[in-house]
Write a structure and sequence with these properties.
With 497 residues, the chain is an alpha/beta fold. Helices cover 61% and strands 7% of the residues. The N terminus is likely disordered.
Length: 497
Amino acid sequence: MNCLSAKQLREPDSYRPFVIVLTAFLAVHFVLSMALSGSFSPDDADQLIFSQTFAAGYYEQPPLYSWLTYLSFKILGLRYPSYFLVKSISLGLIYVACFCCARLLGLRGWTAVLATFLPLLIPTFAWHSFSYLTNTNLVCAASAISFYAIARLERSNGWIDYGLLGLALGTGLLSKYNFSLVAAALFIAAVTIPSLRRRVLSYRMLIAIVIAAVVALPNLLWLFSHRTALVAILNEKLHGTTVDHQYGRLRGFATLFSNIVLILLPAGIVFAIGRRQLEPFDRLSDIHRLLARFFIVAAGLLILLILLGGATRFHERWLQPFTLLVPLFAFSYYRVRSSGALRGLALIVIVAGIACAGVRTGQIFFGGFDRGVYPLQMDFSAAARELGALAGSGAVVISRDRELAGNLRYQLPTARHLTNSHPLYLPPLDEFKGPRILVWNQRSGSTLPNDLRDFSATTLGLKISEDLPVQFVDVPPRLSGRRSNRLAYVVVPQSNR
């Protein structure tokens, strides 16, 4: 891309180059994911657990990603490529949505392609979306396509446009629950613009609302039936363990604004350096105004979440749906004076993408960036042989950690797998009459942990004797020099059920 001529950079047909660039990008992502597929990291392990069944809800995140994983396994089988195909597609949807937005904002040719990949200038998004995110990637795509759908109403108000908006809103609600704030910010921003106010307050908007409600209804009903447990979980995520409300609000403001700076500062530096090469347009469209006001309204809603909702912390990935389009908006606000400046920006974006791929490649050989006590690649072969001989067909394996539950589900697919890390997910067990095996990491102790014992007693009615023998099996790392783990487990006999 950095070798393009000025003529190519102004080429109006951007679809073909976009498809070529995106295909190459996703191919690299898929190949690197497969190369690191010795075991599943925490977020991926979650999907292995939940994809055992098709359910209206699973835990504190909406079910869309788990549904996609379930369908992929049903069609292609329980294999690493089946799972990482879903990851690559969800990542690709972000850039498809950004490309649609770039075109709507008036960008064409290679300029539109370059603008599409500007989110790579957000380091936290670039790395996390490329390496391990699941639900967040889907909600980022849904947020961008929702902006695209509602902005289309400014130019036409056909039934198809309202249908697209309803589908985007429904899938967004099924992607991650913070999308509700994205949707609210988009609606509020739209009603402040006269040309859009008539559209979003039109009776045709009922079509979008009905479609969104129908798409999200199964999960909304599940949410209502599990509202008490979910509110407790979400409160813990937003509030942490803070007791002092004044200190909590200060902490909330600190984490909100520090993460916004962390997300946007690198892109801001790039644009500041090239400021002399940028010439602002004399007149912006209502679509530009919609996006600008969306950012302002979203910031206001997040501040209200602190002041009225008592939120005390914001993780940077929670903010990605709100900030994803900031670099694209800034780029569309200006006219670039020379093709050389475009090439320079393209080179920076290419370097950012190569950096993500390079670090990911380094993990194949050196590990690194492990989360928790588990390395990136673990060898479950010995555990699979030992537990598989005990489990047979129809066993129920209850693991203390989600990483163990997800990886054991892949290794022992004929068993049903539960974890007390996700107590809301309790799939049907009527057809699973085999042994009950309780598994935990020996780092938690050589005796059965109380939380695992209580979860098993509450959910399965198991009466677990203190005299049951504890057995051990090693789970070594595939990479030399990485930490090793040892699993402890007990087998609950039929008489204890």
